[in-house]
Amino acid sequence: MSLRGIMYTAAITTTLAVSSFAEEKRPFPIATSFKNCIKPNHVSQAVLDSTVSDLYFSIKEKYIAKAKSQNGGYYVLSGGGTGGSAGLITISEAHGYGMITTALMAGSGPIADPEAKSIFDGMLQFFLDHPSDKTDALMSWEILTDNNGGESPAKTGNATDGDMDVAYALLLAHYQWGSTGKFNYLSEAKRIITDGLKAWNMNPETMRTNLGDWVNYSYIDEWSGEEVTGITEEYYWGTRPSDWMTGHLHAYAEATGDQFWTEAADTIYGMINNFTKNYSPKTGLISDFVDGQNGAPAGENYLDEFKETNHYYENACRVPLRLTVDFAHFGSPTALKTVNGMVNFIRTATAENPENISFGYNIKTGAPLYPTKKSTRFSAPLITGAIVSKEHQKYLNDGWDLMAKTRESYYSDYLNLLSMLVISGNWWPPVKDFTVDLADGNTVAMNAVRFADLTHVSTGTALNLSFSLSGIDRDLPVALLSLTGRELATGVAKVGTDNQFSATLTASLSPAIYLVKIGDRMLSHTAKIVVQ
Predict the structure, then answer these.
(1) The pTM is what?
(2) 502 pairs with which residues across the strands?
(3) Residue with the larger pLDDT of the pair 470 and 527
(4) Residues 319, 244: contact at Cβ < 8 Å?
(5) Which of 17-31, 96-110, 248-262, 433-447 has the lowest mean pLDDT?
(6) Which CATH number fits domain 1-26+436-532: 2.60.40.1930, 2.60.40.10, 3.40.50.620, 2.60.120.260?
(7) β-sheet bridge partners, residue 312
(8) Are the C-beta atoms of 230 and 261 separated by less than 8 Å?
(9) Do the first three CATH levels of 1-26+436-532 and 27-423 match, i.e. the same topology?
(10) What value does the mean pLDDT of the chain take?
(11) In 3-state terms, the chain is what percent helix, strand and coil (to 5)?
(12) Could you tell me which CATH class the domain 27-423 is placed in?
């Protein structure tokens, strides 16, 4: 599947090609609208954006810590997350969440994070300082404290999901800041994707994500003197569905040109279809771990992690979020089918009240594992899935209100933030051909005149706009603004024949997001454009 030319559009779409550099090319809030997806419609986009910002800065203050050892940097103070040893201060899973959200929240506007790039670079440095014991292209899953209150350099194997998120975050960073600074984000992302994830976290025969680089073995045969490599038989078929980040895989394919990642995504789609058909036809839910050649639910206490590893629990709660991202960004049909099935189940199971979402479910019967226990780590990803269909509008609205008022622990708060970024249109795909659109229901205030095809052609510093408006027979003022509202250029859109308008604005534009405001007191409309 080629990702070139995929556009997220509605009534107004504008893309401008400019070669110069800007600090943030896609600053928060980007607030795009994904094709065939909905947003909460009981609050404004501004409220959505500010709610995301409030949670982000709360998380930043509470969980982002400055490293004391080696080269410094930053990490997410997570504790054990979904498991871990005594004395654990962070895990690679947390590091991935931190890097993704920091890249998406970057910007100089009043609700963005102007420190995002320095924090992101510090997190990348921390990643580089704590490699896996198998390869420096992956991160040690656990980081423990040392005897002096710093971070121990001791190494462990990796966890697949953490490094998948780190590589993805580096692609976001490349499109956010470019790769010509202290770190070459794109080169580092490709190194992790190919030398790390493909070499150590993908089973080359089954095309499944594995549980970590530690399932691989390598030794020298004492008789032949040759190196013997393979995957530990016990975990040969083992895979963790929360690692089934098909949206990430599509982004990897775009970045590297390696169709291996497209095939891996197709493998996951096949496993999802088989699993939901044979093991969870009533719920559409997937278990924490999947094992065996046919991709069946793993047994209880798999990896000695939780008793409930054969059900929808602490790991699998992330699956709806990951698949929703894939559908929003790339339109994957299996992602749509799976997420829609999960949301239909949860709406029925909770009597249309998101506050009733429980802490885990039996994948076969749909019975809550712990009916009285609640957490946004379970509710937020399922609520996010509601964006895939307008039939879920009320559930999405109610769910957003629940997410907005809830603060819990590291794991829940980060899943809540990631979910809010998707719902609000602020998690954009790290691919080149991405166009932002912010059409407000395709209508214009006062006269209810419909816009059609706002386009432009770039010639040097000239921005040539053309659009049509029915029922308007007068010239209209046009202004180009920064996201903070600073006026950069003004002009007049001259009315022509057949209600066609044209205007030329002159400004020196760097890659960034801008506003184009058209109209006067009687008629006004503002659209966002991306300059790439």
Answers:
(1) 0.79
(2) 466, 494
(3) 527
(4) yes
(5) 433-447
(6) 2.60.40.1930
(7) 361
(8) no
(9) no
(10) 85
(11) 40, 20, 45
(12) mainly alpha
- The C-alpha atoms of residue 175 and residue 178 are separated, in whole angstroms, by 6
* 3-state SS class at 260: helix
Chain position carrying tokens 């910007």 = 107
- H/E stretch holding 120: helix 116-129
State the DSSP string of 27-69. PSP-----TT----SSS-HHHHHHHHHHHHHHHHHHHEEE--S
Pairwise pLDDT comparison (46 vs 435), residue with the higher score = 46
Q: What is the pLDDT of residue 218?
A: 78
Instruction: Supply 365's token pair.
Output: 């019967």
Question: Active-site residues: which are they?
Answer: 93, 161
Max intra-chain CA distance, the chain? 90
Q: Which residues contact 222 (CB under 8 A, 6 or more apart)?
A: none
The tens digit of pLDDT for each residue in 452-481 reads 333 343 434 667 676 666 556 778 888 887
Residue type at position 511: P
Instruction: Return the structure tokens found at 528.
Output: 């966002």
Domain locations along the chain: 1-26+436-532, 27-423
Q: Is 179 left (phi over 0), alpha (psi -120 to 50) or beta?
A: alpha
Q: Name 267's Cβ contacts closer than 8 Å, sequence gap at least 6.
A: 206, 207, 208
Q: Which of 266-280, 371-385, 428-442 has the lowest mean pLDDT?
A: 428-442
The amino acid occupying position 387 is I
At residue 46, the 3 state secondary structure works out as helix
pLDDT tens, 412-451? 999 999 999 999 999 999 987 665 433 332 222 212 222 3
Q: Which amino acid is at 402?
A: L
Long-range CB contacts for residues 299-302, cutoff 8 Å, separation at least 24: 302/238
Tell me if residue 505 falls in helix, strand or coil.
strand
Q: Residues 133-151: pLDDT tens digits?
A: 999 999 999 999 887 777 8
Whether the CB-CB separation of 330 and 247 falls below 8 Å is answered with yes
d(CA 104, CA 117) in angstroms, rounded, equals 10
